[in-house]
């Protein structure tokens, strides 16, 4: 039960931090978007790579794991940011947010199926409530089909950010996985910036402060919290907390004096709170994941000697009776 509550807290904290990006990004409106993402992930890589040796975990093993890691960086990081940029060019940010806000629903269904288990009806219903609340909290807008297609691409990237990490976490751990992913995303985004015709310029003091916050707090801290949470609770349950992003964005906007939430946004925040609460609180036996050495994956038991416990940063795992 302890791991379940800690996983819930980490998922909630990570997504709340991500939500603050909306307010901070207001300082970067004049800065090249993809170039800013290159700097963001470069800052994160500079912090995370030196930490790799201090925590348990092993590098990717074999072509399959390297391919999964590359796909994670290409879709969940670089691809997500590029699709998001293209989507907001022709579609309102509110519409894009509503589309990306459907990620909990997709993950609540796809996550269990990929792990060979039946989706939880309770979590799927909670995910629908969270997604509806996220759409209301972010506001509703309009756009064209091209923008909607790019928004769907961003949704796919958001989903891959979590689902592709699940099979990698048992060996790599949250720190190593985050470090490798952000490092691989840097050259991918640099190429995307060149394709988009962006040119580098030094950021101003305000822009530099915003990039430092996004790189250190939103990327390093939020990534570590999110991936450690995936090791403690299931991906479908963790995905519910993605609905906190527009809620956090609305609160941050209000605190920065940029306007109070509307009645619809407040109602959306309430829906998110109800959905997250109903879906995240375990019923019956705790849903804490067992240590990787004890868990069967599609009928194959991983040998304990080759599977370091990445989910508890350096701690000896306690035996869990959860499913």
How would you describe the overall organization of this protein?
The protein has 323 residues and is an all-alpha fold. The protein is 66% helix and 1% strand. The protein contains 13 helices and two strands, in the order H-H-H-H-H-H-H-H-H-H-H-H-H-E-E. It has helices at residues 2-19, 21-24, 33-48, 62-90, 93-100, 103-114, 121-138, 145-163, 169-195, 205-230, 235-239, 244-255, 263-280, and strands at residues 296-297, 300-301. Strands 1-2 form a two-stranded antiparallel ribbon. Strand 1 and strand 2 form a beta hairpin. Helix 12 crosses helix 13. The longest helix is centred in the N-terminal third of the chain and has 29 residues, at 62-90. The termini are close together. Mean pLDDT is 79; it is low at 285-323.
Percent in helix:
55-70%
Oligomer: single chain
Q: Based on DSSP secondary structure assignment, what is the total number of beta strands?
A: 2
Q: Alpha-carbon distance between the termini?
A: 12 Å
Strand content: under 5%
Strand order across the largest sheet? 1-2
Question: What is the number of helices?
Answer: 13
Give the biggest beta sheet. 2 strands, antiparallel
What gross morphology would you assign?
globular
Averaged pLDDT: 79
Q: What is the gyration radius calculated from CA atoms?
A: 19 Å
List the secondary-structure elements in sequence, H or E: HHHHHHHHHHHHHEE
